[in-house]
Amino acid sequence: MVNQIPSLLEAFKRYAKENDVEHYNKLEEVMLDGLSIPVLGDLSFLKDCNVGFLSLTNDLADKKSLEALANLKDTLQELHLANNKFADLDALTPLHALANIRILNLIDNPVGGVEDDDKMVKAAYREDLLKALPNLEALDGYDRSVVFEDSEPEDDEEEYSSEEDEDEVDEDEEEEEEEEEEDEAPDAKRRKTTGDDDEE
């Protein structure tokens, strides 16, 4: 039973070969979801099919699963990898070769932080992909500009907070100096009055 699931992909490949799919230059969308395969395998038979959309919702977990996508680097523009098992940024490095990718979906992969409060994990993951894929327009359903702004929210808040703290410290120091000057003024006046009385 275990070996039957990966064979679904092999069945697709056989179908593609038997029907000469590799010569279909208008095979623009391919969905290979729900196959529960840990490794994708060779996709060279799709190289000349002008595939622009690819969805792979399976049990993919390491970079070997994505290295096969290099065969689609010239045409692939939208890639959906939601609900897989990619756990770190190293596993995603093969995606860096997909320079034409405009839309990328990696929702519900450990690499992006499963919990909402994994802010540092999410920020590192987003920053890495945005730098590696300059043509990326949307990541995980969010526009690039929104993702970029959200990738470093705490730094801006900390910087703003630091500036406010500095201003508050300066204001406190100025108030203390003014209070000291006010306290010293009566003493100086009293000393001057006492000196005049002594001269008399």
TrEMBL record:
InterPro entries: AN32 (IPR045081), Leu-rich_rpt (IPR001611), LRR_dom_sf (IPR032675). Keywords: Leucine-rich repeat, Repeat. Residues 149-185 have a biased composition (Acidic residues). The lineage of its organism: Eukaryota, Sar, Alveolata, Perkinsozoa, Perkinsea. GO terms for molecular function: histone binding. Residues 143-200 are annotated as: Disordered. Belongs to the ANP32 family. Gene3D superfamilies: Ribonuclease Inhibitor. The keyword Repeat applies. This is Acidic leucine-rich nuclear phosphoprotein 32 member. GO terms for cellular component: nucleus.
